[in-house]
Every structure is written in C-alpha cells, then in structure tokens.
C-alpha cells in the first residue's frame, strides 16, 4: 500500500512540472504598430500646438 501511495505521489509530482518554453508572441507586431501610431499622434499634436501658437503670435493675439 505504501508503495502505491509513493508511486502515485511521484506520478502526480511529475505531471505538475511546467515546461521551460517561452510564451508565444501572439500579437507582438500589432503592439509595435500601435505604439508607433501613438508616437506619431503625439508628434502631430505637438506640431499642431506649435503651429497654432505661431499663428496666434503672428495675428497678435
């Protein structure tokens, strides 16, 4: 009986081991494209603010 319990414990312990495989990068290209789009949007907003400021200065406001 003890042998069966030990064998069962060893079998269950062997099943719980997680393989050392890195997780797949499923949406990596999409995340990179989204980050680039956010960077471009931020640049455009800064340029728009600068242009608006220049126009206000030119018109004397």
Describe the protein in words.
- This protein has helices spanning 2-15, 28-59.
- The radius of gyration is 30 Å and the shape is rod-shaped.
- The protein has 61 residues and is mainly alpha-helical.
- Helix content is 75%, strand content 0%.
Number of strands: 0
Write down the Rg: 30 Å
Low-pLDDT windows of residues = none
| Number of helical regions | 2
Shape annotation: rod-shaped
How far apart the termini lie comes to 93 Å
Largest sheet: none
Reading the helices and strands in chain order gives HH
Structural class: mainly alpha
Mean pLDDT: 87
Beta strand %: under 5%
**What proportion of the residues is helical, as a percent range?**
over 70%
Which terms would index this structure?
75% helix
Topology, element by element:
Blueprint: H1 2-15, H2 28-59
Task: Produce a short descriptive summary.
This protein is mainly alpha-helical. The protein contains 2 helices and no strands.
